[in-house]
Amino acid sequence: MRYFRLYILLFLMIPFSIFAEDGSQLWLRFPAKNGISADKIISKGNNPTLNIAKKELMNHWQGQEIELRTDKSLKNLKGGYTIKSVQNKLVISAEKEIGLLYGVYHILRLQQTKSALANLNITEKPSYDVRILNHWDNLDGTIERGYAGHSLWKWEDLPNTISPRYEEYARANASIGINATVLNNVNASPNMLRKDYLEKVKALADIFRPYGIKVYLSVNFSSPKVLGGLENSDPLNKEVQKWWKDKASEIYKLIPDFGGFLVKANSEGQPGPQDYGRTHADGANMMADVLKPYGGIVMWRAFVYSPSKEDRAKQAYLEFVPLDGKFRDNVIIQIKNGPVDFQPREAFNPLFGALKKTSEMVEFQITQEYLGFSNHLVYLAPLFKETLDSDTYADGKGSTIAKITDGTLRPAKLTAISAVANIGEDKNWTGHHFAQANWYAFGRLAWNHNLSSEQIADEWIKMTFTDNEKFINPVKEMMLTSRETAVDYMMPLGLHHIFAGGHHYGPEPWGDYKGGRPDWSPVYYHQANAKGIGFDRTKTGSNAVSQYFPPLNDIYGNIKTTPENLILWFHHVPWDYQMKNGKTFWEELSYKYDTGVKNVREYQKVWEKVQPYLDEERFQHIQSRLKIQAKDAVWWKDACLLYFQTYSKMPIPYDIERPVHELEDLKKIKLNMGHHN
Ligand code: BDP
């Protein structure tokens, strides 16, 4: 009887398991179990990575015979590969097995997107050596700024119990070329380096290794004192140096290919070398020295600022430029794309290019801390591209951030690119199904920063949903415009950091944390008053423009030549200032908010029209989130326009929908999502 029930139950579950679309498969939807037989794969050797490559082919490759060939002469491809059609077979060649695995994912992608498979002659070389995700996961299972559930890493169960998701995670990353991961929060617990935790880390590293993924850790600068019981953590203290040296040796015994450390020091209350009167270089070099014998690196973050009279946007540059040339060659400075903090739009960080003798890498944020969490559909490739394509003029015209960081302009010893992950234990990994596209896009751009946002969206849609044009075209258009739409309904025209304090979800332009930190107050950033609005960063203001190379310092320093999408980033703009299209600044601001709202309303229509082309489960999930996004967009528009109107005293243009909220009601909204800043 019991068995009978079980069978009924299993029977009932079959249709669900076939049709249930929880998004857990990500973009990896290759035809199941229909691949070529083992005798159609020619390869030599027996290596775990090669075995994965073969397994993927046997499970999913429906094309011709394949040869997988390692070839030492391909070292210059830096982990890349070639794919060539040779008579009746496809030959994938790479220096090492990991390149072969990447090549296999490449042809599976071509198959999945129904791209041409004849006469292939492909050579792929990654833009960056280290393509790394930063997880802000805490040891208690929570994730700082995570919106897809708890941490994937089950620290309590490790190393004995291994979740199947560890390997799925590694496979997903390998499929897009990500080859490194920082497991824990930059606000790091010293316990991460405890022996028992290192054994857990080793278990993860062992699972990730065949997929070509190296493990790195965020470390707390005070670890020697807190964990080792030393008197202090002064980087010039011999005992402290010895403590790190012993720690490194302990780590590498467990994990011989350990990647290195990520460090947030002297920032937002974290300890650092300055606590002992030392510099960032002293701190970074001490760690670099102990990692050097093992080939490890230090990613030292430039995200530093403290409450001071100095414009927050200037502080990282002021601290780091004087240290240029003082860092060891296995130190790389990890720089957020903008000089403030992962805002919907920022001017690029002027540190890029300014460090001439030091390796630099970009840090992006995939998790949508400042972009509506996992409720808003915001495709981030255009934001990533905007940064990478920004011309710093550091070595003359054409000195884009991509070229500064990938080593083409200045042969850099280390090249890397990083992003804060949006991955959690939600079934669909990222909370919003479309947020998977941002993980995907980061990986693809880290591999090849020349890909366009459109190409990546096109691939991702075909792999994740369908190749039906009726779905692809409108959905792609929605994705491609979604970042600008979010900027429009949140912070158009260079506005920044007017989020509600703490959780950063909704608007709080009135936020003025008197007695708290002014540089965490929205009013610090928008500076609205009876005259106008915006942060004066020109010579008459904080002079942050002077941190940019010519001609950008002049371009940004002049209101007439500043791109209008950054006008409030650099200027305090009179309400009646005439914009290029003839409208007053106030009118333009109003229309921007309105456009943002209208676009989201349009996305709702787009989505309902494509319903016939996808499964019900994902359709509804996304539909419900678009409703939240539409409501939030109206909330943003009303809050910002009603509040700024108290200064502009000008009418909201009459062809714009009237606010549906009262400002005083909006001020009372307190979301219970607490956080420090
Ligand atoms: C801020 C986040 C904070 C992070 C910090 C960082 O609000 O949670 O710790 O960035 O990057 O944007 O260190």
How would you describe the overall organization of this protein?
With 677 residues, the chain is α/β, with parallel strands linked by helices. It has three domains: 102 residues, Chitobiase, domain 2 (2-Layer Sandwich); 321 residues, Glycosidases (TIM Barrel); 146 residues, Alpha-Beta Complex (Alpha-d-glucuronidase, C-terminal Domain), CATH 3.90.1330.10. 37% of the residues lie in helices and 10% in strands. The protein has 20 helices and 15 strands. An eight-stranded parallel β-barrel has the order 6-7-8-9-10-11-12-13. Strands 1-2-4-3-5 form a five-stranded mixed beta sheet. Helix 2 runs parallel beside helix 3, helix 14 runs antiparallel to helix 18 and helix 18 runs antiparallel to helix 19. The protein binds beta-D-glucopyranuronic acid (BDP). It catalyses: Hydrolysis of (1->2)-alpha-D-(4-O-methyl)glucuronosyl links in the main chain of hardwood xylans. InterPro entries: A-glucoronidase_C_sf (IPR037054), GH (IPR017853), Glyco_hydro_67_aGlcAse (IPR011395), Glyco_hydro_67_C (IPR011099), Glyco_hydro_67_cat (IPR011100), Hex-like_dom2 (IPR029018). One of its GO terms (biological process) is glucuronoxylan catabolic process. Belongs to the glycosyl hydrolase 67 family.
CATH architecture of the largest domain: Alpha-Beta Barrel
CATH class of the largest domain: Alpha Beta
| End-to-end C-alpha gap | 59 Å
Overall structural class, as computed from helix and strand content, comes to: alpha/beta
Question: Can you tell me the CATH superfamily of the largest domain?
Answer: Glycosidases
Number of helices: 20
Number of domains: 3
Oligomer: single chain
Radius of gyration: 26 Å
**Average of the residue pLDDT scores:** 95
Approximate strand percentage: 5-15%
Report strand order across the widest sheet. Answer: 6-7-8-9-10-11-12-13
- State the shape: globular
* DSSP helix fraction: 25-40%
Low-confidence stretches: 6-18
Number of strands: 15
* Ligands, ions, cofactors: beta-D-glucopyranuronic acid
Q: According to CATH, what is the topology of the largest domain?
A: TIM Barrel
* Main beta-sheet annotation: 8 strands, parallel, barrel
